[in-house]
Amino acid sequence: MTRAEPQGGGRVGGKEARILQAAVSVFAENGYHGSSMAQVAAEAGVATGTIYLYFGRKQDLLITLFQRNLGEYIERCRPALNAEAVGVPRLRRMVSMHLEFFTEDRALASVFQIHAREPDPVLRAGIQPTVAAYFDLISEVVQSGVDNGAFAHDLDPRLARDMFFGALDEVVTRWVRAQHPFPLMSVRAPLAAMLARGFGAQLSGDPS
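Structure (tokenized):
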């Protein structure tokens, strides 16, 4: 996957792609609020004024990173999840794809983990619709498992969704902050099993 590809349309031009990748590097190192457009321009090898031809303000850089990268990830998820059986297989696939997404680019993972809950109203308004769309996708996986009987019939889908995201969010945050990062994919199987059992699923090998 090319990180700078937009949803739907053609490939983003090379200069815009460089600016976005530079923003990832600068924001990951300094944090969004500690970074300037001049720093992003220097990292991208363009004049500061050039950035404003593509992005009218610094907020647009961060918002675009979420919209394009997370939005494209959601679009990849849908057919992959639909190809799996409802319940535990679909849950396992979603855990795997979530971890794979962040493993692809640790700098981007750092930016996402820090800024997904931005208090700034402009940033929040731009970021939250894409994050909400991902939460909706998690809810669909959980609800389909409940409807199919794979998960407990009295499972609260909203609470389960929050549990799913919270568990993976904590693991990815710990991985991002670790001085010596552990292989993120190494937690895939135990994490998926923990969540499945928490949702009331019966796994092979479990006592009946």
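The chain has two domains: 10-56, 59-198. DSSP finds nine helices and no strands in the chain.
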